[in-house]
Amino acid sequence: MATRENIYANKIFLNAVLPLVKIIIESNEIMAKKFKNKNGIVGISAKDPDGKVGTHYIIENGNFTVIKGPNEKCDLELEFKSIPALNNFFAGTSKKLPKIKGWYHVGLLTATLSVLMYMAKLLGATTPPEKADEKDLVVKLYFSLLAAGISQLNKSGHPAISKWAKRSPDRVFAWKVTDKPELSSYIRVKAGKSKAARGEYKRSKPFFTMRFDTTDSALGTLLGIDDMIEATVTEKLIMEGAPEFGAQLGEYMLLVGSYAKGS
Amino acid sequence: MGGLTYTMLDTTNLSTAEMYGNVLCELGEHHPEIVGLSADLAKSTKIGLFANKFPDRFFNTGIAEQNMFSIASGMAKCGLVPFVSTFAIFTSMRALDQVHTDICYQNLNVKMIATHAGLSFGQAGTTHHCTEDIAIMRSMANLKVIVPADGIETANAVVGAYETDGPVYIRINRGFDQKVYENTDYDFQIGKAHQLMDGNDLTIIACGSCVYQAIEAAKILSSVDGLKARVLDMHTIKPIDREAILKAVHETRRIITVEDHNVIGGLGSAVGEVIVESGKGCAFRKLGIPDTFSIIGLHEDLMAYYEIDTNGIVENVRKLIGLEFEEDEDWEDEV
Fold first, then answer.
1. I want to staple A46 with a disulfide (CB 3.0 to 4.6 A). Which of A1, A86, A121, A260 is the partner?
2. Of B227, B331, B335, which is closest to A68 when you measure between CB atoms?
């Protein structure tokens, strides 16, 4: 039986981490090549007494669509025996492989495993990658993960975050790197509802923006190399908006990180 | 607030009109070309302070406002700088033809300091309330229109008006205004709004006595509702600060205007025009006197009645915040 904490972590893996595959396919030519001309439905799921949970990808000629929830008609499915098993695997605390249904779709299987492993390598990195495009990709993944992760915790009823969201009028919180709008992500919060999105929020200036001056500065904070306060003092990190909201957002970022790392 | 009945506290904070009178006296000391005119209202409008100090440079035209503005235009033609003081209702309506043709049309250097504006002459009733003057005066070509927030800002506005060539209309209240500024040492510029509080949830744009109310409302909204309101003192209605308005549209998405004036043609309309012309969308609400002749009562009671006091602003901000204006209200399609 999954605990509330297991469920929060699971929502993050299924609805915030696994959707990042789409970003990787769209940003990395080598990974995109592995799915070239491929078609099928690929699911990642976990069994649970309350019903199966999961996320699946619909792949059409190499193009990904990510859909929340399991799919009974998967061509290939990585099925974990329980929610904690899925969480532990993606947090890197267990190497226990899931049951692979449809393993005979070898092309899809190898491509899927490659992209999942690549994603795990990028998200699990403790030092910045060497290549510039890979640095950008890690930042983009993290920004998206944080926005989606906070929104998922709200939707799952996480006490602190749902209380925060409930009290919030219509506000947008954004993560950005100066001069690199393509890396941006944001979360819109309104009276208990929340919605994470990638890219820049263009309707207006966000209520609060956490802006990094360079990709390296962003990696410094996101990978826990730099102290956030020090980064703010040295203006590697610029908080655009009331400082108390920066502290709040920082707290929720750490919360998402702790669930994603299984700590 | 209230009338000209002094309390001990009030005596330490001169009424807005008295600030005007004193500043004009100071200006008069250094600039001999300044002359004063009034139409039997020197005492009420406080230009009487100037009259006492410079009796040879002050002219009481009697109850003949139209003549007074024509005389002022002639004086300006001769190189003098007339400061003309009467009630707002007489400046903007009784003598409008003279203001229009004799002064504005000729772009003459006449400064009109109109007192007892808005609902500030509360007990005197509807005939003495002046809730149309901003609309009327801002449609006069060449004329600059200033609505100071308090006595200190009136001092800045009077000096600014003297330093600006051409006709200027300054609208002030009867009696005491709540203090917004501690001293004149802030960046007052005609045509530039002054930001008093910062916030990104919405912007409250106010003028005149409503500026103080807006600040108090913003404090309540912050502590009770957790809303961060930007407060702009839009002391100059014409030329309006387009830049500050467009910045507010972009950064706060919601704008509420507050004025002691009819909602037709005043500050709200001026702000609304900028927004519409920009093509940018935002949630917008105008607070002021509706399309009606105002009722009689104390100024503070009337402000409450027409929801341009602190509580009225708070309530209306809460309604504005609830407005939907995003195209996408699907909260589930976030992957």
1. A86
2. B335
Catalytically active residues of B are 65
Alpha helices (runs of H) in chain A, residue ranges in sequence order: 4-12, 20-27, 29-34, 83-91, 106-124, 132-155, 159-167, 215-222, 228-233, 243-260
Fill in the DSSP letter of residue B221. Answer: I
Average pLDDT estimate for A32-36: 94
For chain B, give the percent of residues with pLDDT over 70.
96
Q: Which chain B residues have any C-beta within 8 angstroms of a chain A C-beta?
A: 199-201, 225-228, 249-253, 282, 321, 326, 330-331, 333-335
Chain A residues whose C-beta sits inside 8 Å of any chain B C-beta: 15, 19, 66-68, 148, 151, 167-171, 188, 193-197, 203-208, 241-242
Higher pLDDT residue, B301 or B3?
B301
Q: Is the pLDDT of residue A222 over 60?
A: yes
- Positive or negative, the CA dihedral B110, B111, B116, B120 is positive
pLDDT tens digit sequence for A79-96: 999 999 999 999 888 888
Q: Which two tokens stand for residue B183?
A: 């001293």
Decide if A15 and B335 are in contact by the 8 Å CB cutoff.
yes
Give the DSSP H/E element, type plus range, for residue B44.
helix B42-45
Give me the pLDDT at residue B9, please: 52
Distance from CA of A19 to the nearest CA of B (A): 6
**Residues B242-276: pLDDT tens digits?**
999 999 999 999 999 999 999 999 999 999 999 99
Contacts of A236 by beta carbon, 8 Å cutoff, 6+ apart: A212, A213, A214, A217, A220, A221, A226
Which of A62 and B59 is assigned the larger pLDDT? B59
What one-letter code names the amino acid at B16? T
Q: Which ipTM score applies to this complex? A: 0.71
Question: Is residue B11 scored above 60 in pLDDT?
Answer: no
Residues 6+ apart with CB under 8 A from A233: none
Task: Give residue B3's pLDDT.
Answer: 47
| Closest residue on chain B to A68 (Cα) | B335
Produce one character per residue of B246-263: b if its CB has 16 or more CB atoms within 10 Å, e if not.
bbbbebbbbbbbbbbbbb
Picking from A167, A169, A196, the nearest residue to B201 by CB comes out as A169
What is the separation, in whole angstroms, between the first and last Cα of chain A?
Answer: 19
Chain-centre distance for alpha carbon B311: 20
Q: pLDDT tens for residues B183-198?
A: 999 999 999 999 999 9
Closest Cα partner for A215 from A125, A154, A128, A145?
A128
- Using a CB-CB cut-off of 8 Å, the residues of chain A touching B251 are 204-205
Distance from CA of B301 to the nearest CA of A (A): 31
